[in-house]
Amino acid sequence: MKTETFAQMLSDIDETFVEAAEKRAPREREGKGASSFLRIAAVAAAAVLLAGAVFAAVKLAPKPNGPEEEAYVLPPERTCTQNVVSSVKRLGFPTLVKEYADSDAICEITIESWLSEDDMNTYHRAKVDRVYKGELPDTITFRQYGCSACPSDFPIYTHGNRLLVFLVEREDLKAEYPDLGSIYELTAHDLSALYIARAGDGKDYLIDYDVLLSYNTKKKCPGIALDDVGTRELLAELAESVRPGDGLLADDLLNGASPHSDLGSIKVYDLEKLTALLTEKASVEAWKEPATVPEDAVLPPARQGVGNAKSSYVKTYNYAEAYEAADAVCIVTVENWLEDVSDCCYFEAKVEKIYKGEIPERIVLRQNESKDFSFGSPIFTYGNRLLVFLGEWEHWDGAGEAYYQIGSDLTTLYMANDASGELYLIALHGLVGNKSRGLGLKDKFSLELAQELGTELKKSDEVLGETVELYAHDDPPYNIKIYLFDDFESFLDSMN
């Protein structure tokens, strides 16, 4: 109803009461008093109607975030009264590792606005705050299982909810919902979404509203530590921080609510620690892809020395001794070749991950191979990924800090993955592996696996792939050693 309509209403009321007063002239004094009283009452009633209509219009209008922010819409219902369908029956047993593998993207988002719902799902506009895996636009359409008419284990998200989510893109929905842009949904419905809340000291925490993700991860993935740091005091603090925007979530935090209370109450994790795990996992996944070799990369003039050389070592190590003797233990990616000097060559290398010591992000890596001398290993080339045990090399007079390999190429471990993407470490020379048999490192060598790894390596480095295939013979004292990357990393963690 427009404002002019209310003005006209007041004018009509005024004319009506004037006519009534004229008709009551014989009782002018009494009528005048009554007329004045009724007129005042009518004006007051009209004002109430006007105020009510304005209030209703404001209430139904989109609620602004602030003077310069886009308006948002709240969901019509946050909960459903129908019977809940168990997430376990729908989804099996999600774990952090499984959801990472199944997801197209992992990110932090903030729910901005409710968009719409269908028979089973709710659609939200969400702002992408930080990406840990994949590529995402700044704003996405986020599809949540459950709506005002469909059962769900969780409340419908609302404006301001911050979440860490594991997402899959639903390209098949673009034709059905052309106006919603890129639509993403959770890998395991709400089980793969963790609320983010800030404590009074400014530190962010993750809230596992349903404990199944942490329960299954702890049970099936012993190598991943999800430490619950939740206390009553912390939950109360987090509840108060989210209450201004989401009283329903705040109440649940105070009540320790969980749809599966037999497994325990709500879990709370340190956001920084968990996202560090995700960042590390992303690095490992990236290592499965061959490094991109730029057009201006400097490659070594030869991959194999023209003359064979024999060498003896003052000390042969096992992997524990090499770890103790090294100044640094790390994963590196070989980059540009720098130069050959007599019986060795030098490369630029990028440090990807450090297990021991302090080392620059970029180093000069010395290898005991050159175009003139071969000690039995191919010369490195751009893109080779290695796990190396390093000592500082003081005889380099070029730019940057130089490092040599403790135990020379005997301790070098080449990174490779099989056809399924499982990551392995390959030792081309078995001597160190033979001396390491009591350390709990299980050699996964088989001719079939070695051939498979060699085939995969040849896609990016034909010389290295052929070398692996060549060295894969059944002579136990000399054959190559193959370790699962996760197993070897666990060994290094135990050494630290």
Description:
The chain is α+β, with helices and mostly antiparallel strands and 496 residues long. It folds into 3 domains: 3-60; 87-282, no CATH class; 307-495, no CATH class. Helix content is 31%, strand content 26%. The protein has 13 helices and 18 strands. It has helices at residues 3-23, 28-60, 87-91, 96-102, 212-220, 232-242, 247-255, 271-287, 319-325, 431-435, 447-457, 462-471, 485-495; strands at residues 105-117, 121-133, 139-145, 162-169, 183-190, 193-198, 204-208, 267-270, 307-308, 328-341, 344-356, 362-367, 373-374, 385-392, 402-405, 413-417, 423-427, 481-484. The strands form 3 sheets. The protein has a 5-stranded mixed β-barrel. Helix 1 (3-23) packs antiparallel against helix 2 (28-60), helix 6 runs antiparallel to helix 7 (247-255) and helix 11 (447-457) runs antiparallel to helix 12. The longest helix has 33 residues, at 28-60. The chain is elongated and about 75 Å long.
